[in-house]
């Protein structure tokens, strides 16, 4: 494992020299370390790049780390990771991707993650993306997340992209059976000429299923973000999508909701609020001793916390 | 402590539509004084408070704080010199918590007192308040009390409250009076409160009446308050005080 990988790991997965659970570290399309545990097996795929992560039924309180790092320019990484979460298991999965470029050529990571949750399983999925390095080559991260949630299962996806990623196209799809719930929280900050596209699509197929999609984003400079949320209520269910965005400088944010109720008992809500930082918020923090720049930073820090 | 000299404030507009909100205000607040500014709605009270805090800049006139001219200083520069300001309508933030704001407010005073104590002072003792976001989920009364707690946590030389009673329920209002009494004893600083409330006027050292942008009365509480109460009663009952008109 090289120094840049260690640096990226610390940012995207709080790596402190070791992981307290099962892990697989991907470095420039290669495996840089792996550990399975008694209840969590990590197995290489044989037909394409990537791994299968199998969590035994009723595994509770364990963690899996699967960070991916691209440490130099001119890398085009593609990986397929599939997670099979056994009945009644309750685990935390920490993913995350860091891309570092030092040259003119761009580098990209395309991570395609599929989750299959069995009955009553619970997953907290943490995903953090960052781009670093002084190169002019673009840092591109295109994550795809696909979730199938069986009866009464629950998945929370907490995804964050704070800085340095020049282009991202984030595709997330979830299909929910009876009583299943999904919560997706996304936080994105873009600057310069960065572009971020987010596409959430949730099919609420099972009675009593529910989805809560929350996006908070800040667009600075000349950056451009598109947030699209599609919720299909196919039975008695509840769906809520919320997009809150702060725009600064010449930033652009588009929020495009698409709610479809196929059942009279489908309750679907979309809320979107896009605007600059309210002047009175800055004034309030200035009365507490912060100058204007510090006040803006504090507001953004809180907003994306 | 605080001195305002010939302060005027006009809102922009054409010569014909320009409106004078404050007209040649002279005001001095001595150390450790409790001053209440009262008067009819639209009289310029909140504007005057904002001008003192630096949120609005006067069209003309000068402001001195501890002998130093601060007319051109920003809001945060005045905060650093020792001014605290509680908004009439507190600002809400998505993401920032009560803890975040109280820690900022008390940044120089955290060792002397845990920040949760300031919340307890305003009747919000439940520990979960600290980690709540200062957003629309808080009721008007809760956020108002948090605003007051923040101003208290500043422990400033001068604390300005713009209508602290607005949005406060009756139970909290009784506490509010106690809070001001305690703040006055403990802070050692001066307090300016914009208020219509008789019970707040009753604990003032001095009262200033601001009407149509001018100070129409100013002096010790014992001199000003009786005249205000007499005017109030007369307003309801042209023939005299209380129910005498019907007799």
Question: What can you see in these coordinates?
Answer:
The complex is a heterodimer of chains A (305) and B (247). Chain A is mostly beta strands and 305 residues long. Chain A has helices spanning 3-13, 279-287, 292-303, and strands at residues 22-27, 30-35, 40-44, 50-55, 60-65, 68-70, 76-85, 90-94, 97-100, 107-117, 122-132, 139-141, 144-149, 154-163, 167-176, 181-190, 195-204, 209-219, 224-233, 237-247, 252-261, 266-275. Chain A has one domain (3-278). Chain A is built from 3 helices and 22 strands. In chain A, the strands form 2 sheets. In chain A, strands 3, 4, 7, 10, 12, 13, 15, 17, 19 and 21 form a 10-stranded mixed beta sheet that branches. In chain A, strands 1-5-8-11-9-6 form a 6-stranded parallel β-barrel. In chain A, strand 1 (22-27) and strand 2 (30-35) form a beta hairpin. The longest helix of chain A is centred in the C-terminal third of the chain and has 12 residues, at 292-303. Chain A starts with a helix and ends with a helix. With 247 residues, chain B is an alpha/beta fold. Chain B has a domain at 2-10 and 20-91 and 155-234: Rossmann fold, CATH 3.40.50.300. Chain B starts with a strand and ends in an 11-residue tail after the last helix. The chains are: A mainly beta (305), B alpha/beta (247). The A-B interface holds A 216, 244, 278, 280-281, 283-292, 298-299, 301-305 and B 53, 55, 74-76, 79-80, 83-85, 87, 90-91, 93-97, 100-101, 104-105, 107, 150, 154.
Brief overview, please?
The complex is a heterodimer of chains A (305) and B (247). Chain A has helices spanning 3-13, 279-287, 292-303; strands at residues 22-27, 30-35, 40-44, 50-55, 60-65, 68-70, 76-85, 90-94, 97-100, 107-117, 122-132, 139-141, 144-149, 154-163, 167-176, 181-190, 195-204, 209-219, 224-233, 237-247, 252-261, 266-275.
> What's the rounded overall pLDDT mean of chain A?
93
Hey, roughly how much beta strand do the residues of chain B contain? 15-25%
Global outline of chain A: globular
Task: Summarize the helix and strand pattern of chain A as letters.
Answer: HEEEEEEEEEEEEEEEEEEEEEEHH
Assign the CATH superfamily of one domain in chain B. P-loop containing nucleotide triphosphate hydrolases
- What's the story with the biggest beta sheet of chain B? 6 strands, mixed
CATH class group of one domain in chain B: Alpha Beta
Secondary structure category of chain B: alpha/beta
* Mean residue pLDDT of chain B: 87
């Amino acid at each position: 494992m090289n120094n840049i990988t260690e640096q990226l790991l610390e940012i995207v997965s709080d790596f402190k020299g070791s992981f307290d659970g099962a892990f697989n570290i991907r470095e420039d399309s290669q495996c840089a370390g792996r550990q399975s545990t008694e209840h969590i097996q990590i197995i290489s795929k044989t037909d394409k790049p990537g791994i299968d992560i199998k969590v035994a039924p009723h595994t509770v309180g364990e963690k899996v780390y699967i960070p991916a790092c691209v440490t130099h320019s001119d890398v085009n990484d593609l990986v397929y990771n599939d997670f099979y979460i056994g009945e009644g298991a309750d685990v935390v999965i920490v993913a995350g991707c860091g891309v570092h470029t030092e040259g003119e050529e761009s580098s990209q990571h395309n991570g395609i993650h599929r989750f299959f949750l069995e009955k009553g399983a619970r997953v907290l999925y943490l995903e953090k993306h960052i781009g670093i390095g002084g190169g002019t080559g673009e840092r591109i991260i295109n994550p795809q997340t696909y979730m199938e949630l069986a009866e009464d299962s629950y998945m929370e996806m907490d995804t964050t992209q704070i800085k340095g990623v020049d282009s991202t196209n984030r595709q997330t799809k979830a299909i929910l059976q009876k009583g299943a719930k999904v919560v997706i929280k996304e936080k994105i900050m873009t600057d310069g000429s960065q572009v971020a596209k987010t596409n959430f699509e949730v099919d609420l197929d099972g009675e009593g299923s529910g989805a809560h999609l929350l996006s908070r984003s800040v667009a600075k400079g000349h950056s451009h973000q598109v947030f699209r949320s599609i919720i299909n209520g196919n039975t008695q269910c509840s769906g809520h999508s919320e997009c809150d965005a702060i725009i600064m400088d010449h930033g652009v944010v588009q929020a495009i909701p698409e709610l479809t109720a196929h059942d009279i008992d489908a309750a679907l809500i979309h809320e979107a609020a896009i605007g600059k930082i309210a002047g009175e918020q800055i004034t309030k923090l200035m009365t507490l001793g912060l100058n204007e720049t510090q006040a803006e930073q504090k507001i953004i820090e809180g907003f994306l916390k | 402590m605080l001195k305002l000299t010939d302060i005027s404030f006009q809102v922009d507009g054409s010569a014909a539509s320009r409106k004078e909100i404050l007209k040649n205000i002279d005001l001095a607040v001595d150390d450790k004084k409790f001053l209440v500014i009262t008067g009819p709605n639209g009289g310029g009270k909140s504007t005057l408070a904002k001008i003192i805090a630096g949120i609005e800049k006067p069209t003309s006139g000068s402001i001195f704080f501890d002998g130093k001219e601060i007319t051109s200083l920003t809001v945060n520069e005045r905060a650093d010199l020792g001014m605290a300001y509680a908004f009439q309508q507190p600002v809400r933030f998505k993401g920032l918590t009560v803890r975040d704001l109280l820690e900022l407010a008390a940044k120089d005073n955290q060792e002397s007192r845990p920040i949760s104590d300031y919340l307890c002072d305003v009747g919000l003792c439940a520990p979960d308040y600290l980690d709540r976001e200062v957003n629309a989920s808080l009721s008007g009364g809760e956020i108002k009390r948090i605003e007051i707690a923040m101003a208290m946590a500043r422990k400033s030389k001068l604390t300005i409250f713009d209508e602290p009673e607005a949005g406060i329920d009756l139970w909290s209002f009784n506490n509010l009076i106690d809070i001001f009494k305690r703040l006055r004893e403990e802070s050692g600083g001066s307090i300016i409160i914009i208020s219509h409330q008789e019970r707040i006027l009753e604990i003032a050292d001095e009262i200033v009446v601001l009407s149509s942008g001018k100070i129409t009365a100013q002096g010790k509480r014992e001199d000003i308050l009786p005249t205000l109460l007499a005017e109030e009663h007369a307003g309801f009952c042209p023939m005299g005080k209380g129910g005498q008109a019907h007799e």
